Amino acid sequence: MSAGSATLEHELASTRRLLWGEHVKEDVFRRWAQGFQFSADEPSALIQQEGGPCAAIAPVQGFLLKILLSETPGHSFQDLTSEKCNSLLVRAVCTIISQCLVSKYNVAVYRKNDTEANTSAGNNVSVEEQSCDAIDHFHRRIEVHSFQTLSEVEAFYTRNIRILKDKYGVLLLLYSVILSKGVSTVEAELAELSDPLIHSTYGYGSQGLINLMLTGRAVAHVWDHDQVVGGLRLRGIERQNDIGFLTIMEHMQYCTVGSFYKNPKHPVWVLASETHLTVLFSLERRLAAPETAGESAERIFRSFDPEGNNFIPSAALQDVLCAADLVSEPEYVELMRRKLDSENLGIILLSAFMDEFFPGCERGAPDTFTLHHYNGLLRSNPGGRVVYRTGRAALLECPMRAATTDPMLTCLQTKWPSIDVVWDDGQSPSLN
Q1: Is the model's pTM score more than 0.85?
Q2: Residue 10 appears among annotated catalytic residues
Q3: What is the pLDDT of residues 232-250, one digit of tens each?
Q4: Between 169-181 and 207-215, two packed helices, what is the crossing angle to 10 degrees?
Q5: 145 DSSP assignment
Q6: CA–CA distance, 46 with 89 (Å, rounded to integer)
Q7: How buried is 378 (Cβ within 10 angstroms: 0-12 exposed, 13-18 middle, 19+ buried)?
Q8: Shortest CA distance to 373 belongs to which of 355, 358, 388, 352?
Q9: Which residues pair with 246 in a beta bridge?
Q10: Which of 220, 232, 274, 344 is 20 to 30 A away from residue 248, measured at CA?
Q11: Parallel, antiparallel or unpaired: strands 268-272 and 277-281
Q12: Three-state secondary-structure class, residue 200
């Protein structure tokens, strides 16, 4: 059933402004005008043709992998049929839409003209499109179908898989997510921001758009819960997410990623560089186990030891105890400071801290495990072949932070400070 034309026109105009702002650069829009396409070399890996749409493609890839890993542990990725991959794509898309917690689901569809309908390739440019702005052409031909249940949405996409795989598939998903959630609701969640969800010059997605795709909430920050900064309440991630998020920007101290994102329900993480999103995943389920109390305290201790020296200044002990929800009364802190720094050297060792507060603490995660990495950009893969890269990871005794210049390792160390990875082909995958 199609939505009312007047209401639809208003909602589409509002969605357009929310995504693109008042002025849309033609080249930015065209970079986003692609469908969800699978790699010929990796059946379940999606291809990204140009820079920009990773803010939609990487989350879909992440949820697709979450479903695949949950249902077929140990499955050979090369054995997947095209029908199975299409089914995974539909279910991943439906998962993203369902997180919006809506009363009804609004699915955007691009209505082809006669010229487009007679072509087999979804990326051909029609005569009509050549004669006007591509974005105006796109909006004039959007239809919206409403459904009451998610199973109806899944059945609709399954019957009409080309909606997702043809030229505007990625954009249609964005519009479906926003139209289902409601433009006013998205705007309210982005209350402190005025910029569009897609950068008007460079075409990359904002953190609000990334969070919307990953969690169903278009909040602008990646810390846990809301935080009050300068008298303003800034929204963060409200609960443990199905898949995680790590960013190299945390290493640069531009943001703080909270535990909800670092410790998702499934061992799948979207990784962010300064300009691109990729996906890290593992078949090791224990990587998704919640942090133990000792692991949480060790992570907090290390956050006060940015150089990776395995010690902190004695004066920082009270802040560490407070952050770890341990007793932090001044008299107790002074007692512990004298005990842990008995030689009055002005430092407290990590080992002494852990032995005192968490003796015999065991790790929830294994010390060694296998990781896989996905980057959808053809130019970022060796030989231009989009395939999953495999590495063998180990959690070492001492952090590697001070020693590495590898962006991939730097990003991973925001979650695992002591991680080192040896990649099967001898070369670290690109985050860009």
Answers
A1: no
A2: no
A3: 788 899 988 999 999 999 9
A4: 80
A5: E
A6: 9
A7: middle
A8: 388
A9: 271
A10: 232
A11: antiparallel
A12: coil
List of residues 6+ apart from 227 with CB closer than 8 A = 221, 233, 234, 236
Structure-token pair, residue 41: 């070399």
Catalytic residue among 145, 276, 372, 373: 276
Can you tell me whether residue 285 is helix, strand or coil?
A: helix
C-beta of residue 103 within 8 angstroms of C-beta of residue 280: no
Pairing state between β 244-247 and 268-272: parallel
Of the candidates 386, 365, 367, the one whose C-alpha atom is nearest the C-alpha of residue 290 is 365
The position carrying tokens 């893969």 is 381
Residue 19 CA to residue 56 CA, distance in Å, equals 12
Q: What are phi and psi of 315, to 5 degrees?
A: -65, -20
176-201 pLDDT, tens per residue? 999 999 999 999 998 766 789 999 88
CA angle 314, 317, 321 (to 5 degrees): 170
Distance CA 180, CA 30 (A): 24
Closest CA to 280 of 298, 306, 261, 252: 261
Rounded CA gap, 264 and 262, in Å? Answer: 6
221 has catalytic annotation: no
Only one residue has tokens 């846990």, namely 224
Cα 335 to Cα 151, 314, 324, 345: the distances in Å are 61, 12, 18, 15
